[in-house]
Design a protein that fits this description.
- This protein has 2 domains: 100 residues, 3-Layer(aba) Sandwich (Rossmann fold), CATH 3.40.50.2300; 94 residues, Arc Repressor Mutant, subunit A (Orthogonal Bundle).
- The protein contains 9 helices and 12 strands.
- The protein starts with a strand and ends with a strand.
Length: 223
């Protein structure tokens, strides 16, 4: 899968490229609006990840010009601008999705894959394990008919566990997918979020689906 990343920060771009490569994306990077637009119009990309705060042309303008040129590759805006008008402008300029920094890497990958599926099918898929249902695009989760209120990080951890249901996921694997290196230095950050998830998705429903595997990590067991 060919992905064009238009991102002003070289540090962020390098980190994203490493993670996306591991997920099977062939990633091309453009550091500013004008070079990003040129590569978007000259290339044949499966999906585009676009920052807003770019030199030369901002992300809204880049997105609008890509669409005006008739290019139909899905565009996901990835930015720190989280105001309602920012999101509305991004979507109105032609973007297909909008993800606010900071974000969980596993959620970014899920949304990219959902956009790719949406191009082939009619609507994104959801993940399900037992009666727990997760929508990676809207970042919502349900037990049966009961919706569960999760933070972005809690959702990221849950997504790590539910996708390979019944498989042990190591602590370093979860931390690498959900947190940056600075946050990961806090030794108990994952344990805190696992505890919060258990309070929200297990205890109210008398379940024990998040299992600690001593010395290894965690796994999600569908009941």
């Amino acid at each position: 899968m060919r992905l064009l990343l238009i991102e002003s920060s070289a540090r962020s771009a390098n980190a994203l490229r490493q993670g996306l490569t591991a997920e099977g994306f062939h990633t091309e990077w453009a550091p500013d609006g004008r070079s990003g637009l040129r590569r978007a119009l000259d290339g044949d990309h499966d999906v585009i990840v676009l920052d807003i705060l770019l030199a030369g042309l901002n992300g809204y303008e880049v997105c609008s010009r890509i669409r005006a040129a008739g290019r139909t590759a899905p565009i996901l805006i990835l930015t720190a601008k989280d105001g309602e008008y920012d999101i509305a402008e991004g979507l109105e300029s032609g973007a297909d999705d909008y993800l606010v920094k900071p974000y969980a890497f596993v959620v970014l990958v899920a949304r990219l894959r959902a956009l790719l599926r949406r191009g082939r099918e009619h609507g994104p898929a959801q993940w399900q394990a037992g009666d727990l249902r997760v929508d990676p695009v809207s970042m919502r989760a349900w037990r049966g008919e009961s919706e569960i209120d999760l933070t972005a990080k809690e959702f990221g951890v849950l997504a790590c566990l539910i996708r390979p249901a019944e498989r042990v996921v190591t602590k370093p694997e979860i931390i690498a997918r959900v947190w940056d290196q600075e946050s990961a230095r806090r030794a108990n950050v994952l344990e805190v979020h696992i505890s919060a998830l258990r309070r929200k998705i297990d205890r109210p429903f008398r379940r024990s689906s998040i299992v600690t595997v001593r010395g290894a990590g965690y796994k999600f067991v569908a009941e």
